[in-house]
Structures are given as structure tokens and as C-alpha cells.
Amino acid sequence: MTKVTGIDIGRAWIHLVEVDGSARKYTVSKIFSIPRDPGSADAGTDLSRAFEESGAVRNRALLAVPGNLCTFRNMDIPFKGIDAIRKVLKFEAESVIHSHAIDDIIVDCVPVYERGNSTEVFMAACPKDELRLGMKALKQAGVDVEIFDLDVTLLVNAAARLGHFRNEDGAGEDGKTETIDEKSQVIIGLGSESTTLILVKGGKLLTARVLRWGVDHLVRSLARELNIQPSLARASLDHYLGLDVPSPVLADAAEGEPEGQVEQASEAGEEPEVPIEAFEHREIDPAVLQAQVRALIQSLVRELTRFLAGTKGVGDPTKLLISGGGGLLPGFMDCLEEESGVPVEALDLLGCCQDVAPEIGELEPQLDLAFATALAGLGATEPSMNFRAEDLAFKRKFEQLKFPLATLVLAGAIALFFLNILNVKALNEIESSMGVWIENPRARKSGKKLPSGYAKGLLAHYAYSTKRGKYQSNSRVGQVLQGTKQQRELQNKLMNAGRFDRIATLRTFLRNQKTAQGKATGYIPEIKLESGVAVWQAFSEAVVSAQQDPELKRFIIPELDLLVSPSKKARYFKFTIAFQGREEFRQQNAIFEKHMKAALGTGISKNGSPFESVEFKFGKILEEGIYKGSYTYEFKIKPTFDVFQPLNPGK
After folding, report:
1. What value does the mean pLDDT take over residues 388-398?
2. C-alpha angle 462/465/471, rounded to 5°?
3. 496-514 as b/e, with b when 16 or more CB fall inside 10 Å?
4. Where are the beta strands (DSSP E) in 474-569?
5. What does the alpha-carbon distance between residue 203 and residue 110 come to, in Å, rounded to a whole number?
6. Which residues are paired to 436 by β-bridges?
7. Number of H helices, E strands in the chain
8. Largest CA distance in the chain
């Protein structure tokens, strides 16, 4: 079974009605009313408390939008079909709505009559700022409702669903109503600060009007009669009616105040409003209250007469239906019937419901709007308006995350695309540096005899012929294998090997060649280091140590000079080093000098370090490039250090 909560946020009260069931059979499972804090404009706290204390469901709810926030108009639209009408409704409404910019309101409508190819619609426009306040209160209470429907259409649809517009004498033998009253009827919703007049004809909404006054007009008149503050008069009236709750401080008289109203208390020289204690009241004389109620009804009848006179082809209504808490005023319905000459009945939507939970108790008429809202959410009444549209449209949790998620996925896809480009580029650079055969694209497009490609990279001198003009490979392997069967075999192996397997393939190939040559010649010599390599190794060890120092920035060694004369009289190793930064290269050189002096200790050679001492001198300032300052270092090689490899025992 489905549970839906109808929400009615009023100026003085918040009403909740929870309905459980389906569109055909439902049960009123919870009702709850809570008074608003006096003078509070934020309903979020009160609404949160209402849901917590009532235990009503929050995951599926509907909100009734008060008609006093909206502007009503009846318009002719040159279309048929509600979907087509809604597409042009905002454009058509711009010419009749002057109180707000068209982009600052949400408009919706329900059809009234269809004449030929045009449709008369009842249109309502509600400011977005007012709707956002409602959404803020709902969000604070942890509720996200799907629909904001208009209280006028909600009441009409619920009344039609419960048979209020059917002829009493049209019932057949089976008890089912067969006809609908085609004459006009009026629903009067007397609220705290506004009164809604809803004209219904043939069981359908025709038009509506909102008067900017309600029970507050009676309270102000009562306050003047009793010479008390309006807030105290409201508390006294609530006590008289059995509603002992703190009442909000009344606002000034609004537009549409009944004729003949006396000046406000402040203008008459009365004391300014001060807060009163909860449930403080004065006793009201029933005769005085009855006189004030009659005065209120007389004002209401005058406005009702003007309303009906301004609507063409309506005629006198057959019935007045009273909705809301205003019907609780003593003698209100009898007096209204006497003054208007029209039968008056209570709308009493909750009294017509199919089933009520036994623990609920007495049903109050001021809950009718919340009940009508719950029926709309359950699907028991026809859909009408929805002010959750445009940028205020309801979005489920996935839809709320859909756009950010799609943006994140798109950004990830773009990032992966460019990362893939960078990876491919890096792989190509690695492949090229290892050695790859580069095709000549011009060889395909031209009939001329052009070289089909060329070798490039680390392995080029080993695997391919590199003789090109006056340039020729200095690699011993390239010189030995060039033009032989072994060279073609090596080329094929390297071309078929993977990018990162080529060096291992070359090493394996050379090992096999060494073994084959040894077997063929019977001579397998030990490969020894060339003269002076031990010096290079000791210097390389010192440079690597300097590179690992976190305080040392980047540097470059552009010049190297090694002299290892057999005479052992002139042995030195010189090099030039340049550092980054115009102002920092001196500090960088001090750090580098420390590592060079450390190289005078034990080296990688079995004979220890080849260096006896080290000296440096400032070179010059470099104007171009990122390296600004240079120094020249000179290592003095030990005269006792044997820079030659030992002789073979067989020689």
C-alpha cells in the first residue's frame, strides 16, 4: 500500500494528513495540526516538529500552495490540448501579469471551456521567491515533495471526487449518483489572513478570486470593540472557539479590506503591540462576537456579489460550500445563509472519506485542504497544476547527481584521452631511443628509387648499416657484422621483439656470438677495461652522489679532459660544471665541492681512490640558457695509481 502526506502550511497553523491505500480505496492513517510560532516567517522549524511528532511519511508528500500568493486570470488560448497550451502559456501570460517579471514566476493552468479551436483556461501565477521559501522549509524538515499544487484546484478536485457537485435527487436504486449539478456553486475558504472564493459550474472550476483579508478582520474589529490589542483579541477568540494556542501578531490591513473598516489601533492612538503570554485571554460576550461575525459576513456577501457579477453567464449559485476553520465561528453558516439567501453547507471533505483509523478521533474541517492534497498525491483525484517547474522542478536523487556525474565522466574521458596520447608519445620515444626502423613515407608516393627507411636510436649501430656518406658507425659490433648474415639475423630479431625486449635480445645475441666465435677460434679472452676507465668510474660515483643530494639543483658538465700519461708525471682530470640561477650558483658549487672532496676517499677501484687532490676556480657568467655560473675543477691523479689493466698471464 502507498502512503502519501498532504501538507498545508498556513499563516497560523500547519496541517498534515497521511493517507494510506490506493486511488480506489484509502484510509486516513494520520492527521496532525500544529500552531505556528507567533510572528515567525520561517516555517521550517515548525514543519520539522510536525513531522517528528506525527510520524507521517516524508518520502512521498505534496504541498498545497496558498492562493493568496498567486495571481489568477481567465484567458483564451488559441489551442486545444493541455500539453500544447502549456508550451505557450508563459508567453501568453506575459501580457496580463504586470506585478512580476515573467521570468520570476511559475505559471500553470487548467482548462475551463473549449470553443472551436480555442480553450479558455484558469491560469495561476506564483512568484518563484515564495516557492523557494516553501522548498527551504521542506528541505529543513527533510522532505522533497514532487508537486506544488494550487489549493483552489485541490479543493475543487477533491470535492468533485467525493460527490459534492452531484444532484441529490439523481441517485438511482443502487445508490450511485448519476448526474452532476450543471448550475454554479461557490466554495468559500475563510482563512486567517485571506478568503478564497472559488466558482464551480458543472462540477468543474470556472474561476477564483482571493480577498486579502480573513478572520484577522474580525479580530481587529473585536479588538477595537473590547479596547484591547489584536494579539490578545485573537487569543481570546481562539479560547472562545476551544483553540487555546499562541496566536501570531496580526499584520496591517491588506489590499481588499472590507469597506467601512476603522483605522488601525496605532493610528487611533492605542498602545503599540507587545507580546502576550501563551493562552492569555479575555472573556468575550457572545452577543458582541455575534455582531462582529455578522459584520464580517456582510462584507463577505458584498464581495461575493461583486465576484459573481463580474463573471458572465453564471447566474445565482445553488449552494455555498464553506471550507477551512472560518466555519467554526459561532452562527457563521446560518448568518451567511440569511444574508446571502443561498443554501450554505460545510464542505467537510474528511467527513466523506471512506475509512479513518480508529486512533485518529475527531476530524476537523480545517484539515480539508491537507486531505485534498494527500488525495492528489495518491492519484484519487485528477492532476491539475504543478508549480515545481523550470529551475524549481523536482529531481530524484539520481537525476540530481546525473549532470555532475556526466560532467565527471566526460572530464575523466578527456583526461584519459590526453593521458593516452602522452603515453603513446612516451612509448614512441622509448622505442625510438632503443632502436627502431623508421619508414620513409616518400618511398611509397614516388616511383623514384629512395631508401625505404633508416635506423635510429641506441641499437642502430649494432643492428643496421649506418654508413651514410662520410659518416659510418664506430661500433665494433656494427663494423664486424655489417653486411653479414648475422647482421640480418640480428635485424630480424630486433624488429620482431617487443619494445622493451630489444636490449635483452641484443645482449643474448651478442653472448651467443661470443660463444660461437670462441668455439670457432678456440680463443676466449677476458674483456678488460680500457686505460683510464677506473678514473671515469670514480668520477661517476662522485657525480651520482652529488645528484642524490636534495639541496643540489640541476647542473650540467659540458667539458671533460682526462690525461693519464704512462710517464706518471702529468696525470690530471679536468671538467667544467655549470649551475642554474644567477644568484644561487655559488651556494650550489659549495654543495658540489663537498661531494668532490669526498671522492678523495675510497673509490670503486681495488687500489682505492685514483684522486690525490682537487681544486676548482670560477669560470664565467653564462648569459644564455638556464645555466648561469660555471666552475672548472681539476683532480690530480695519484702517481702510484695503476690506470692500466693487468697483463694476461699467458702473455
Report:
1. 78
2. 100
3. eeeeeebeebbeebeeebe
4. 555-564
5. 14
6. 456
7. 17, 19
8. 142
What is residue 580's three-state secondary structure? strand
Q: Which residues, in sequence order, are bridge partners of residue 561?
A: 574
Segment 535-590, tens digit of pLDDT: 888 888 889 888 888 888 888 888 899 887 766 667 888 999 988 777 788 888 88
The C-alpha cell 502550511 sits at 9
Q: What's the distance, CA 134 to chain centroid?
A: 20
Rounded-to-integer distance, Cα 631 and Cα 579, Å: 9
Side-chain-side CA neighbours of residue 427 (13 Å):
9
The pTM is what?
Answer: 0.59
HSE, CB side, 13 Å, CA atoms: give it for residue 303: 26
> From its phi and psi, is residue 372 left (phi > 0), alpha (psi between -120 and 50) or beta?
alpha
Give the integer Cα–Cα distance in Å for 33 and 238. 15
The DSSP output letter for 537 is H
174: cell is 443502487
Amino acid letter, residue 296: L
pLDDT, position 269: 43
Chain centroid offset of residue 442 CA: 55
pLDDT digits (tens, 9 = 90+) for 317-336: 888 998 877 777 888 888 88
Residue type for 404, please? P
* CA-based nearest residue to 543, from 618, 599, 581: 599
474 secondary structure, DSSP code: -
Task: Output the 3-class SS for 123-148.
Answer: EEEEEHHHHHHHHHHHHHCCCCCCEE
∠ Cα 4 10 12 (to 5°): 130
Q: Could you tell me the sign of the dihedral formed by the alpha carbons of 32, 36, 37, 41, in that order?
A: positive
Q: What is the mean pLDDT of residues 61-82?
A: 90
CA distance linking residue 485 with residue 508, whole number of Å: 17
pLDDT of residue 529: 42
610-639 tens-digit pLDDT:
888 888 888 777 767 777 788 899 988 887
Pull the grid cell for residue 619. 669560470
Place of cell 676466449: 524
- Cα dist from 339 to 57, 213, 321, 322, 426, whole Å: 43, 19, 15, 15, 93
What b-and-e string marks burial along 43-78, b requiring 16 or more CB atoms within 10 Å of the CB? bbebbbebbeebebbeebbbbbbbbbbbbbbbbebe
Q: Which contiguous run of DSSP H or E holds residue 232?
A: helix 230-241
- For 21-37, write each residue's pLDDT tens digit: 888 888 888 888 888 87
CB of 589 closer than 8 Å to CB of 579? yes
- Exposed/middle/buried for 637, CB within 10 Å: 0-12, 13-18, 19+? buried
DSSP secondary structure string, 134-200? HHHHHHHTT---SEEEEHHHHHHHHHHHTTTTB-GGGB-TTS-B--B--SEEEEEEE-SS-EEEEEE
